[in-house]
Design goal:
By secondary structure, this protein is an alpha+beta fold. It has helices at 2-16, 25-35, 39-58, 150-157, 167-180, 190-209, 227-341, 345-355; strands at 60-63, 67-73, 79-82, 86-89, 96-102, 106-111, 120-121, 124-127, 133-136, 138-145, 213-219. It has 5 domains: 2-58, no CATH class; 61-101; 105-225, Tetrahydropterin Synthase, Chain A, CATH 3.30.479.30; 240-342; 353-384, no CATH class. The protein is rod-shaped and about 215 Å long.
Length: 384
C-alpha cells in the first residue's frame, strides 16, 4: 500500500510537472486513467466511491405525510422536531440520530372477547352506580400524536409505537369510571350518555396530552344489558314515545288554547277600548258640562252675592234712615208728651174730648156697686 501511495504521488507529480500537483485531484485522476493504472488502484477508487455514496445516502432521512421526526444531536444533546414531509439531513458517524414516529390518526377499538393486539382489545364492561352491569359491543377511540410534541412522546413512550400501549389501561379505566357514575336509567338517556362520553374525552386528553397524545373522537354505541332488562328498556322507550305523543298533543292543545285566548283577549280588548272611548267621551262631556255649570254657578253666585250685598247696603241705609226718622218722631212725641204733661187739666180734658169726639159711651151698671169693675164701649157710627 505504501508503494502504491508512492506511485500515486509520483504519478501526480509527473502529470502536473510540479511539486504542488496534489492540489488538483481531478487532473491527477484523469492523468491516471490516461496513463493506465494497476487493478489495485481501480479497486481502491471504486471502494472510495461506494463509501462516499453510502455516506451521502445515509445523511438523509425521508419523512412521509402523516409522520413526524425527531432529530437528536448526540454531541450537544439538542432535539429538533420536524413535522413537514420531505428530506432532512442527518450527519454520519453517530453525530445525528433521527427517530420517525407515526402521527397519523390511530384507531383503538374495544370489541370481542379477547385482545388481538395493542389497538384491538376486549369489549368494555361497566358497573353502573346502581349496581347493574352493562357493556358496549364496539367502542372506538381515535387518537394521534401531536406533531409539535413528538419529543414528549419519544421521551415518555420510547421508540417506535410505544405510545399505543397507553390506550388500553387509560381508556378502559376512565371510560369505566365516567360511565360508572351513571345509573342504568340515566345511561340509556342519550343526553346523559353524551355527557359521560365528553367527560371521558376531557380526562383522557388531560392525561395523555401531557405525553404528546390527543384524543380526537370517542365513538360508543348504545349500552347493552341482559335480555330481561333490554325488554324493559324497549317497553320504557315505547312508553316514552307515547309520553312524547301526549306531550305533543298537550302542546298542540296549549297552542290552540293560547290562540283562542288571544282571540278572546283581542275581541274583549276591542270592546273594552270601545267602551273606554265611549266613557272617556262621556266623561269629557260631563267635565265640560261641569265646568260650564261651575262657571254659571260662580257667575250666579257672584251676581247674587253682589245683588245681596247691594240690597243689604240699601236696607242698611234705609234702616239707618228709618232709625233716624223714628228717633226724630220719638223726640217729637216725647217733646209733645213732655209739653202735654205741663199743661193744665182743662187742656188735657179738651184734648181727650177731641179724641173721643163722635164716640158714645154707654155705662150700664151690672151690679149695685159704687165702683164698677167692667165698662163696655159700643161703637156707634164710624168711630170707635
Amino acid at each position: 500500500m505504501h508503494a502504491t501511495g508512492a506511485n500515486v504521488s509520483t504519478t501526480k507529480r509527473t502529470s502536473n510537472g510540479r511539486s504542488g500537483g496534489g492540489n488538483n485531484p481531478l487532473g491527477d485522476l484523469t492523468a491516471k486513467i490516461r496513463a493506465g493504472g494497476s487493478w489495485l488502484d481501480w479497486v481502491w477508487y471504486g471502494g472510495a466511491a461506494v463509501a462516499i455514496l453510502a455516506v451521502m445516502l445515509g445523511s438523509f432521512t425521508s419523512i412521509q405525510p402523516g409522520q413526524v421526526a425527531v432529530r437528536v444531536n448526540n454531541v450537544t444533546g439538542g432535539l429538533k422536531t420536524v413535522t413537514q414531509p420531505g428530506w432532512i439531513t442527518r450527519l454520519p458517524f453517530g453525530i445525528h440520530t433521527v427517530y420517525v414516529l407515526d402521527a397519523s390518526p390511530q384507531t383503538f377499538t374495544m370489541h370481542g372477547t379477547k385482545q388481538t393486539d395493542d389497538l384491538n382489545v376486549g369489549e368494555l364492561t361497566v358497573r353502573a352506580s346502581d349496581g347493574s352491569n352493562f357493556h358496549f359491543q364496539d367502542t372506538t377511540i381515535i387518537f394521534q400524536v401531536v406533531g409539535d410534541e413528538a419529543e414528549k412522546v419519544l421521551s415518555d413512550a420510547g421508540l417506535e409505537r410505544g405510545f399505543v400501549r397507553w390506550m388500553r389501561p387509560y381508556a378502559r379505566a376512565i371510560l369505566r369510571d365516567e360511565f360508572g357514575k351513571e345509573s342504568t336509567i340515566s345511561v340509556s338517556n342519550p343526553a346523559k350518555f353524551g355527557e359521560a362520553t365528553e367527560r371521558a374525552k376531557t380526562r383522557l386528553n388531560e392525561l395523555l396530552g401531557a405525553h404528546g397524545v390527543t384524543i380526537t373522537q370517542i365513538v360508543t354505541p348504545r349500552p347493552q344489558f341482559n335480555d330481561e332488562y333490554e325488554k324493559l328498556i324497549e317497553e320504557r322507550n315505547s312508553l316514552g314515545n307515547q309520553n312524547e305523543v301526549i306531550k305533543s298533543n298537550l302542546a298542540a292543545a296549549l297552542t290552540s288554547r293560547e290562540r283562542k285566548l288571544a282571540e278572546v283577549n283581542r275581541d274583549q280588548n276591542r270592546l273594552i277600548q270601545e267602551k273606554r272611548t265611549e266613557l272617556e267621551s262621556a266623561l269629557a262631556t260631563a267635565l265640560a258640562e261641569q265646568a260650564n255649570n261651575t262657571r254659571e254657578a260662580d257667575t250666579y253666585k257672584i251676581s247674587t252675592i253682589g245683588q245681596g250685598q247691594a240690597n243689604r247696603s240699601a236696607a242698611t241705609q234705609q234702616a239707618q234712615e228709618l232709625r233716624g226718622q223714628l228717633e226724630a218722631d220719638y223726640r217729637a212725641r216725647k217733646s209733645e208728651i213732655d209739653a202735654f204733661r205741663s199743661q193744665p187739666v182743662e187742656r188735657v180734658m179738651e184734648r181727650l174730648g177731641e179724641r173721643l169726639k163722635g164716640i158714645t159711651i154707654a155705662i150700664e151698671p151690672w151690679a149695685n156697686d159704687a165702683a164698677p169693675s167692667r165698662i163696655e164701649v159700643e161703637q156707634v157710627g164710624g168711630a170707635q
